[in-house]
What does this fold into?
Amino acid sequence: MTDPFARHALLFVAGFVAGTINSVAGGGSLLTFPALLSVGLGPIAANATNTVALIPGSFAAFLGYRDTFAHDRRLLTAMALPSVVGGSLGALAAMRVSDQTFARLVPWLILLATTLFALQDPLRRALRARLPPTASDAPAPPRAHVTLALFQLAVAFYGGFFGAGIGILMLSALAMMGVRDVHRANGLKNLAAVCINGFAAVAFLLGGRVVWMPALVIMVGAAVGGWGGAGLARRAGQVAVRRVVTAVGVGLTAVMFARGL
It folds into this structure.
């Protein structure tokens, strides 16, 4: 795509739709990352640019939930500290591989993210069913916090390396910890996402991998979509939105496998 206006329009629309669906379902990266590839960015540059473009949305979501988890410092630390370390290491790892290697990984990464996105509701129901009826948000034992921190380190590494699909992994881990308050779980997830994306973005910026104009266009589109398009997405319903995003993810995976990216 050579026309600058067409490129920017595509990125704005991708950002708008991603911001809209993120307000009710998540999964916006499954749209913005391929859009960056389609306007000519290499896989690693597209990944880095997409990470930076996600930061305002993640930070806004974090601010909206910041009062839901401030009292539990151990759980906060178990989510935040591994996210900083893992997100940074994942981004550094992504910059050490070649575009050709990353390109070969991308179809598998999108397939993984799409699968996680499609299975998030059944997974949550299965996790809730395994918890006893009396399970509450009572403090978990120290060993459970260590286990959560180790799991979060792995999730954060993946998030820094690629990123799509990390939300459902984090919510699943919190459910297994017995965190049943959906607002508290989302608050902790958003905190971790800020840490992962923020420190990964610093690594990408220092490595010179971010293309600023596409990042800014997606940021604006996502902000407009999150503010103005959320009502439309809510009227459509989470089920319909998730079906659309899953279909897009499956289609993108098939196309990328067929083309070899």
Notes: The CA atoms of residues 79 and 118 lie 24 Å apart. The two ends are 16 Å apart (CA to CA). The chain is about 80% helix and 0% strand. The mean pLDDT is 79.
